Backbone:
């Protein structure tokens, strides 16, 4: 008897649980339908925009991740702009949809961030490399500069400026990064101690603001916008064009790498080198774990005469510190190269 009554109790309990569960499911359905229709409304509203370029909704795999490969955050859509006005139109449209659309926007340069900075989960990614460059324009004179699209790769700028004996003054180590991508960070390399990071070497920018306005800015014109966008982590506007300061490109360089096993000596030497007025043109330091093949991989860093010396360098698997220094030379200075 007891068993039967306990069973009845359980059955009744189960029935009430099922009733509550069904109620919950049914109450969720209208919400889900709203969400879906919202989603498809947004999609079709984006699709109906009159653009020079186009928007894709399906092929979003590449824009879901970056170089770091730590996050998979698919966007709702990717804008492939063919004009600055495309970027402005989409931003204005998203602003018009209001905050309930929950759409975020991220510009994507070459996608070489490590922490998902160029991703917009269920938002709109703007593929800056689609923006036509209209050429890399070089202006010579007392203060030479190059005028480029925000989606241009630094490697292309170097190739073009070198044809005129010029080059940007400050670099990143790796050059397959976009102008917009590094100018929203800083752009740091071995010339930064002398010329500042890349963001210190910009004359003018064209920006599409968060309201979709297209604005030109510089130290003198809209300086607040200029100083916010440079190093602003992509949060203050989208860089569509930049004027970057140039200097004479060296004809030759002497490139030296020095290995240390003692951190204090390494950092003392590095500080000494960057404090010298007439020293090297490039100074960078990095840390390396000394795997057994480290020195043979670095054979190119040592002159053939130094290879015996280098092979004698033993650090027993310890952490190594490397100073990388470069001195620039003109053709006339070729004879003095080996005096460095
Ligand atoms: C192999 C490698 C080497 C590197 N070496 C260096 C180095 O030596 N020095 C250094 O400083 N950094 C270095 N970096 C870091 C690199 O500078 C940053 O990750 C940079 O942001 C990548 O540029 P990107 O074009 O791929 O930008 P993305 O990764 O596409 O975007 C980076 C950020 O910029 C924003 N953004 C992109 N384009 C625009 C635009 N036009 N307007 C506004 N915002 C925009 C994005 O929304 C995002 O927030 C290196 C990275 C890698 C992978």
Residues:
């Amino acid at each position: 008897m007891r068993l039967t009554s306990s069973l009845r109790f359980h059955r009744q309990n189960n029935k009430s649980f099922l009733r509550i569960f069904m109620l919950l499911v049914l109450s969720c359905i209208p919400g889900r339908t709203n969400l879906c229709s919202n989603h498809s409304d947004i999609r079709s509203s984006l699709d109906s925009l009159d653009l020079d370029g186009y928007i894709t909704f399906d092929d979003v795999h590449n824009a879901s991740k970056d170089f770091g490969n730590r996050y998979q955050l698919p966007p709702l859509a990717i804008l492939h702009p063919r004009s600055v006005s495309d970027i402005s139109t989409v931003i204005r449209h998203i602003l018009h949809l209001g905050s309930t659309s929950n759409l975020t926007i991220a510009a994507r340069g070459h996608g070489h961030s490590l922490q998902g900075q160029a991703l917009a989960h269920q938002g709109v990614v703007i593929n800056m490399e689609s923006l036509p460059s209209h050429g890399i324009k070089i202006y010579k004179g007392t203060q030479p500069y190059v005028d480029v699209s925000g989606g241009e790769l630094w490697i292309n700028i170097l190739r073009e400026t070198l044809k005129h004996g010029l080059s940007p003054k400050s670099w990143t180590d790796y050059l397959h990064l976009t102008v917009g991508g590094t100018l929203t960070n800083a752009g740091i390399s071995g010339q930064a101690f002398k010329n500042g990071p890349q963001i210190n070497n910009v004359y003018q920018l064209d920006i599409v603001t968060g309201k979709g306005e297209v604005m030109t800015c510089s130290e003198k014109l809209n300086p607040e916008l200029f100083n916010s966008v440079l190093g602003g982590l992509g949060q203050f506007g989208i860089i569509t064009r930049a004027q970057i300061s140039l200097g004479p490109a060296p004809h030759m360089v002497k490139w030296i790498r020095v290995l240390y096993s003692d951190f204090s000596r390494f950092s003392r030497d590095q500080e000494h080198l960057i404090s010298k007025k007439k020293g090297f043109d490039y100074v960078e330091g990095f840390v390396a774990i000394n795997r057994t093949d480290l020195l043979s991989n670095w054979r190119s860093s040592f002159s053939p005469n130094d290879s015996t010396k280098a092979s004698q360098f033993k650090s027993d698997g310890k952490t190594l510190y490397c100073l990388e220094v470069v001195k620039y030379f003109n053709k006339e200075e070729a004879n003095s190269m080996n005096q460095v």
Notes: Residues 66-67, 106-113, 117-118, 128, 150, 172-174, 177-178, 180-182, 184-189, 233-234, 238-239 surround flavin-adenine dinucleotide (CB under 6 Å). The mean pLDDT is 85. The first strand starts at residue 54 and ends at 56. DSSP finds nine helices and 13 strands in the chain.
